[in-house]
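User: I'm preparing a small set of examples for a lab meeting where we compare how different chains pack in three dimensions. I only have the primary sequence for this one, and I'd like the structure in token form so I can line it up with the others. Please keep the answer compact; I'll paste it straight into my notes.
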Amino acid sequence: MKIELGKTQQLIWKRTTEHGAYLGPADSREEVLLPKKYLDQGHKKGDVLEVFVYKDSEDRPVATTQKPRLELGGLALLEVAQISSIGAFLNWGLDKDLFLPFKEQTHKIKKGDKCLVTLYLDKSSRLCATMKVYPILETVEEGQFHPGEYVNGVIYEIKPELGALVAVENRYHGMIPRQEFFQNKQAGDTVHARILSIRPDGKINLTLRDKAYLQMDVDADQIMRKLEAWGGSMPFTDKTAPLVIQKEFGLSKNAFKRAVGRLMKEGKVRQTEDRIERCE
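Assistant: Understood. Below is the structure token output for the 280-residue chain.
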């Protein structure tokens, strides 16, 4: 057994120094320091401790009893703690923030943003983050998910020509196609989405919208709130350009027309040549 960087592992307390305890596998002379501040008074030499191993600010392997939010091979949505001249630093639950180089960023980020990342070892065997998570996501097997099911995911990249790329359940390839991507979402946002279809390659097509007959009520309420904000009359109709509808309401042109039709049928609004008005 070897001590592994980037992994939580069980190691034996072998010896003690003024700096802390040296831990290692039972069948190896390899050791790593667990600093004194992490030692529990209830533990003693010979005990097995569960620790995470990474490198300190001087690039020395070190153990900690703190629990990181991310390990090698995993995915996590982490907050940007700061931006520097060489990259970003992410809060991952340890005293030392996780470095995210500029070259591993798929879009511009700022302090306070959240980004989905995985962990890798660079050429100097230092743990770093990358936003290039596409290669580690998996495809689904037949019957594993079904159209109509709801899943959770994280948008990790937006491609205007395709749509939004989503890590479904932090594990599987998903995408909200461009024609379904109307809501004001950005990379780093978590979503609760409905499965539209499973592609032949095992990737999942998603939508943020409910089934049409359910979504229509939601859309109609949204239009009424917008109408109230405009004082009961607004300069939009079912002939307004699709891009304007998308920008103002976050809806497709068809969804907008369906919802307006519902409101007109219920006698809540009327439509003139260039406006929608609230019925008194």
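A couple of notes for your slides: The chain has four domains: 8-64, 75-134, 137-207, 213-278. The mean pLDDT is 91.

User: Perfect, thanks.
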